[in-house]
Design brief:
Elements (H helix, E strand, L loop, with lengths): L17 E2 L6 E3 L2 H9 L3 E3 L3 H11 L4 H8 L7 H21 L2 H13 L6 E3 H6 L1 H11 L3 H14 L9 H21 L12 H28 L1 H9 L4 H12 L8 E3 L3 E3 L2 E3 L4 E4 L1 H4 L34 H18 E5 L5 E2 L8 E3 L1 E6 H4 L1
Parallel strand pairs: 2-8
Antiparallel strand pairs: 1-2, 3-5, 4-12, 5-8, 6-7, 9-12, 10-11
């Protein structure tokens, strides 16, 4: 297990901005600094597109599918194309919310929970975290759920190309995944689909990650927190109105994003006592900012009633997430269905996170479930 895959690994403390790797990006860890940058028009997203184009040219590789997907990734867009794609995504999310109100989502979550074996250790990612967001996203896109889950795996692989630490072998694997993904989407989705409307197939590839992986990651993180804090299971069972606040605390303490993609300064900006020059890159450590004691009193404690320190898990400004309400509702309903039925215990083996610099999501999470009635 590495520092990236260890769910109990140390998180960088909040501190003033500093340069990484000599003259590398400025690392931003304080909540106030990260909030300022997310809202400021002086920063724009730094797309990896040109870097991948240069690598493809030097290595004489055909990365055309990978580059096409990057071009339609909302995180790397600005201007009119970004606005048009945001509107397309907003329509898809609105259709999903209309089709999946809380009552229908809870009923499906209860069905999933009822199908899970109890007694022995299970992989909570496979049995509990993945099914609901995969099902809802598949219904929004008009895809069979098995196919949507397979496409999600390829879409997650493609995100590895966002990292500056990506090797040539990794880029080749990302291109292979991108080619499969684009081919499958084009053969499966119809242009006149009510669910997809005029959203391009390459934009939908981005939704496979943003619309399911982040939600599944939140569900598994919430279950992990509950397994290691059994008193909170009893508290949520007796006070269900605390569930939305508990999911917010999950996003703060163990959310699916470790850091946001790099941003580049368009003008000179002062962040605290540091001057960021035009052209400088900044890297926002969301996991550090969410444990900043200046923003969150007793930051390592679970407190569903917190009022201070806004969450940064959904981004900010023009790149604010389009589906936070739907995603949070899915997580709330799934966790509610599980704790209504089971007591959650840690398994002997510790869970393992996905080996990804940007994402903090479980690849595997062994847990033991026992029926609530058996505990009483």
């Amino acid at each position: 297990m590495t520092s990236i895959t260890d769910p109990d690994g140390a998180i960088m403390p909040a501190m003033p901005p500093f340069r990484s790797e000599g003259n590398g990006p400025w690392v931003i860890t304080r909540h106030a600094d990260a909030s300022l940058i997310l809202r400021s028009p002086a920063f724009r997203m730094a797309s990896p597109l040109q870097r991948v184009e240069r690598i493809a040219a030097r290595a004489r590789r055909d990365y055309s599918d990978l580059l096409a997907l990057m071009e339609q990734t909302l995180l790397f867009q600005d201007g009119p194309s970004h606005l048009a794609n945001r509107q397309s995504v907003r329509r898809i999310v609105q259709q999903g919310m209309a089709r999946w109100p809380a009552s229908a989502t809870l009923a499906e979550a209860q069905r999933i929970a009822a199908s899970v074996p109890s007694g022995g250790a299970i992989d909570a990612v496979v049995h509990l975290a993945d099914p609901l967001p995969s099902l809802i996203l598949a219904s929004m896109l008009g895809l069979p759920i098995d196919q949507a889950m397979a496409l999600r795996a390829d879409a997650t692989m493609v995100t590895r190309a966002w990292s500056h630490a990506c090797s040539l072998r990794d880029y080749d694997a990302c291109q292979d995944a991108a080619r499969r993904l684009r081919r499958e989407l084009r053969s499966s989705l119809q242009r006149d689909s009510v669910e997809t409307g005029d959203a391009s197939f390459d934009l939908i590839a981005f939704l496979l990650v943003a619309g399911a992986d982040s939600i599944a990651g939140t569900i598994s993180a919430a279950l992990d927190l509950l397994a290691r804090n059994p008193a909170w299971q009893a508290r949520l069972q007796s006070e269900p109105t605390l569930m939305p606040g508990f999911i917010r605390e999950t996003l703060r303490l163990a959310g699916p994003l470790r850091r946001f993609n790099r941003r580049v300064a368009q003008t000179a900006v002062d962040i605290g006592d540091v001057s960021i020059a035009p052209g400088d890159l900044v890297l926002l450590r969301i996991d550090s900012a969410h444990r900043d004691a200046e923003a969150f009193a007793y930051p390592d404690q679970i407190d569903p009633g917190r009022k201070n320190g806004p969450l940064l898990a959904f981004g900010g400004g023009a790149h604010m997430c389009q589906g936070p309400l739907l995603g949070a509702m899915e997580a709330e309903m799934m966790v509610t269905a599980i704790i209504d039925r089971f007591q959650i215990h840690p398994a002997a083996a510790r869970g393992v996170l996905l080996d990804h610099e940007d994402w903090r999501v479980f690849a595997h999470l062994p847990l033991i479930l026992t029926p609530v009635a058996a505990e009483q």
